[in-house]
Amino acid sequence: MKHIKKLIFTILTAVTLTIQSHAASSIILQDTSFDLYINNSLVQPYSVFAARWGTYSDGVFTSLPNGIGYVEIDEDFVDLMPYYSRIDNTHLAAGSLLYIAIYQASESTPYSSSFNRVILSDPNWIMPVLNLTPDMVDFGSFGPNTQAVFGQFTYSATGNDFVNMIPEPSTSSLLLAGMLVTLSMRRKFYENNKQN
User: What pLDDT, in 10s, does the model give residues 75-92?
Assistant: First the structure.
């Protein structure tokens, strides 16, 4: 199943590039040794989420154009593969720091800060010089210098890395406020019934 998905992914990428009549220089990262969580709850098998390359500035992630990617979780494996391809001049300047967003949406859904997400950074993820020749730069996988700028990430040299997607802080605050109001109302209801 894992190899079939990779093959389909490669074929779709090749077809996309052929349709656009351009060769492309690309960047990729693949990791299969992490556990994905949503609000500290382990994601169950047979889940697929979106992953994108992008930039991050002042708390805002902006995905790169011409990028696709996914995180697939099965019973016996997890697979992350964000992919970015240069088409014409729509690319980030060489030397720019890259980020990866993993978010709770289908792999074809554009990035939005409204999703539970984690945004990862690594000083080794530097945009290379891209050209219009069909070559690829592979950044390998997560490493000891990978860190979360939003959400949580813990690297493990001996086991699986910990990756935790979280909601926007304002969403968390609203959920907490709603929970506190509910508890307060429940307490008042209990006290009123106790007096009667």
Answer: 888 999 999 988 766 678
